[in-house]
Each structure stands twice: as C-alpha cells, then as structure tokens.
C-alpha cells in the first residue's frame, strides 16, 4: 500500500496532510499506540521541511510518501523539500530545547533513518494488532 502527496509549505497545509497521513496509517491497521510515534515523526519531518527547507514559502512544496510493506511489517516514509540545504546533525542532546532535537527524536522513534540535502528516509517496523 502506498500514499503520496505534495503539500504547500504552510503550517495549516502541513498539519492537514499530517492528519490525513495518520488517518491512512490507521486505515492500514496501524495501532493507536504506534500512531503516537508516527504523529511525532511526521510532525518533525513536515515542519522541518516547511520551515528550514522551503522557508514557509507557499509556492514551494513538501513531498510526502508513505509505503506499508505488510509482508515485512514495515512503514517506509520519504519527505523531501525544495531547498538545497544540507541537513545538519546537532551536537547537543538537550531534549528540553525547542531547536536541534529532531534527528535525536528520529533516532529514538524509528528503526533507521537517512538524511540527504532536503530529504529524509525513514524505516519503522510495525506490529500487527
């Protein structure tokens, strides 16, 4: 199963897309408990793409792709923005900070992630409920 969309880089549009993505994940049978993790993952990825990649420019789009590989119990996500900035890892581990903790959260909530210039790939195993 696969779902993808292009989202204008506004907070409202990104929030709407996140809500729709969570509904789709729920329809695919992802548990409420696991949806909590996906909510945080999507929030982090989409806001960062809109803010840092596209600088909240409505005419620039964020691409979101979600794939459910039921045979392997995996969710694969891909988020891309139109920016060319390299995603940087911060050295601090201050979870109470409002900045610089996104990749730290991803490392805790996913099984694997990769980053590139304006791109993030996420892999997360799901449990069948």
Question: Could you give the topology of this structure?
Answer:
Elements: E1 2-8, H1 11-27, H2 32-53, E2 61-69, E3 74-80, H3 102-109, E4 112-116, E5 119-125
Antiparallel strand pairs: 1-2, 2-3, 3-5, 4-5
Helix pairs in contact: 1-2, 2-3
Descriptive overview:
This protein has helices at residues 11-27, 32-53, 102-109; strands at 2-8, 61-69, 74-80, 112-116, 119-125. β2 (61-69) and β3 (74-80) form a beta hairpin. The mean pLDDT is 90. α1 (11-27) packs antiparallel against α2 (32-53) and α2 (32-53) packs antiparallel against α3 (102-109). The protein has one domain: Histidine kinase-like ATPase, C-terminal domain (Heat Shock Protein 90, 2-Layer Sandwich), CATH 3.30.565.10. The protein is built from 3 helices and 5 strands; from the N terminus they run βααββαββ. The chain has 129 residues and is α+β, with helices and mostly antiparallel strands. Strands 1-2-3-5-4 form a 5-stranded antiparallel β-sheet.
Shape: globular
CATH class bucket: Alpha Beta
Tell me, rounded to a whole number, the average pLDDT: 90
Number of helices: 3
Q: What is the CATH T-level topology?
A: Heat Shock Protein 90
Classify the beta-strand content into a percent band.
Answer: 25-35%
Biggest sheet, spatial arrangement of strands: 1-2-3-5-4
User: Which parts are unreliable, with pLDDT below 50 for 5 consecutive residues or more?
Assistant: none
Helix share, percent = 25-40%
Distance between the termini: 17 Å
Helix-strand pattern, N to C? EHHEEHEE
CATH superfamily: Histidine kinase-like ATPase, C-terminal domain
Largest sheet: 5 strands, antiparallel
Tally the structural domains. 1
User: In angstroms, what is the radius of gyration?
Assistant: 14 Å
CATH architecture level-2 label = 2-Layer Sandwich
Count all strands and give the number.
5
């Amino acid at each position: 199963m696969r779902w993808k969309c292009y989202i204008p880089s506004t907070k409202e549009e990104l929030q709407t897309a996140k809500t729709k993505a969570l509904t789709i994940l729920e329809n695919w049978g992802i548990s409420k408990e696991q949806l909590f993790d996906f909510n945080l993952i999507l929030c982090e990825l989409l806001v960062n793409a809109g803010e840092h990649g596209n600088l909240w420019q409505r005419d620039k789009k964020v691409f979101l792709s979600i794939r459910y590989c039921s045979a392997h119990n995996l969710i694969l996500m891909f988020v891309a923005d139109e920016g060319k900035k390299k995603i940087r890892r911060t050295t601090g581990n201050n979870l109470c900070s409002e900045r610089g903790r996104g990749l730290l959260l991803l490392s805790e909530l996913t099984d694997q992630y990769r980053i590139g210039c304006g791109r993030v790939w996420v892999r997360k195993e799901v449990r069948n409920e």
